[in-house]
Structure formats: structure tokens, C-alpha cells
Amino acid sequence: MLIQLAVDRRSIKDALRIAEAARPYIDVLEIGTSYIKDYGMSCIRTVKAAFPDLTVLADLKTCDEAEYEFRKAFEAGADIATVMGSASFQTVSICCETAKKYSRRAMIDLLECPEERIAWLTALRDAIFCVHISKDSGKTFTGSVVPKVLKSAGVQIAAAGGVTAAQLPTLAQGGIRLAIIGSAIAGAEDVAAAASVLRQAADSADHVLQH
């Protein structure tokens, strides 16, 4: 299982400090939506310059202006960018096409998407599909979270929304291959230690699945 660290709502200096401490244990570094709103594309350039070998995701949450927003993110150095699954199919499709053009990837955020719409979106097989529980809902992952139509589609699936180390085995068994972690690492007193615990939990979940 891959680990994506989401940093958000902090200074860029803090984001770089957190990322440096967690770097040995993570696979993807997410530049959160609030950073992009606060600092624009410059924050993507800053983070990618600091961590050129790390996969960087720009959480654009694109809803329209697909080609423009994805092009700007990729030109700034992002390796992955996000589009809302609730956007028009044309918008989501253009995001995926733009990602392919730049040899990058699109992540489709499935926040509040009904299963019928998810089934519709699985035609875009090169994308990463993110099962997302809203922060505002106050909920977290319990039991099976991956819609059957998504699990059977053969696509890469991520999970976001208050994910903790204790949840990783269940998420892995449910088909999640990318765990998006925010406060469990970024909000920890010892970022490196917290990231190490998440890394061990992710590796253990993979080991169980293989046996």
C-alpha cells in the first residue's frame, strides 16, 4: 500500500519541514487545496524544487476549466492533479487527456458521488479513483468503503478522510492501494515517528494480503 501525505493549512515553511521529516516513509506528497488557494501555483514549484524525486500531487479539485488548470499544475511540476467526480464527464475526461499529454496522472475525487456515477467514470481507467469522506461530515472509514462497481473495475483506488494506521488493514482488504494521510502524520508531535508507524502498518497490510 502506498502512502500519500497531505499537508494543508500551514505555512510553506512548515509544509517543507513536515515533508522532510516524513520523506523516508511516504510515496506521494500532496499539496492541499488551501495551499493552492493561498499561494497559487508557486507552492507547487517550491515543493517540487525541494523534493524533485518525490511524486507531488496538486489537490486542485477541478470542477471546470479542465485543460487550463491541469496544464498549469503540470507545468509547475505536479505529477498528479485532482478533479471532482461530480464535474461534467467532459471536464473529467479533459483532465485525464491533459494528464496523458504530459505523461502525468489524474486523480478523480469521488466525494458524494453515487455508485451510478462512479460506474460511469470507470471508463477513464488510467485515473486514480479516490474514495473520499468529507472532513465536514465528521465521519471516518468503517467497514467496507469501496463501491462494488469500483472494486471490479480494475483501477487504482485511494482513500482519504481521517485515515489512521489502525484502519489500513481493513482498507487494504477492501481494495485500497493508496492511503491518503493528513493529520495522523502532519499533526503529530513527532512527524517522523508517526510516518514510520503508518509505513509499518501499510507494509504489514500488504504482507497479510500476499499470504
Give the uncertain stretches in residue-range form. none
What spatial form do the alpha-carbon principal axes imply? globular
Give the helix/strand class.
alpha/beta
> Could you give the order of the helices and strands?
EHEHHEHEHEHEHEHEHH
Strand order of the largest sheet: 1-2-3-4-5-6-7-8
In total, the number of strands is: 8
Q: What report would you give on this structure?
A:
With 211 residues, this protein is of the alpha/beta class. It has helices at residues 12-22, 33-39, 42-50, 66-75, 89-101, 115-121, 148-151, 168-173, 183-186, 191-210; strands at residues 2-7, 28-31, 55-62, 80-84, 105-109, 128-132, 156-160, 178-181. An 8-stranded parallel beta barrel has the order 1-2-3-4-5-6-7-8, surrounded by 6 helices. It is globular.
Can you summarize this structure?
The protein has 211 residues and is an alpha/beta fold.
Question: What layout of secondary structure does this protein have?
Answer:
Blueprint: E1 2-7, H1 12-22, E2 28-31, H2 33-39, H3 42-50, E3 55-62, H4 66-75, E4 80-84, H5 89-101, E5 105-109, H6 115-121, E6 128-132, H7 148-151, E7 156-160, H8 168-173, E8 178-181, H9 183-186, H10 191-210
Parallel strand pairs: 1-2, 1-8, 2-3, 3-4, 4-5, 5-6, 6-7, 7-8
Helix pairs in contact: 4-5
Keywords:
single chain; 211 residues; alpha/beta; eight-stranded parallel barrel; 10 helices; 8 strands; 43% helix; 20% strand; globular
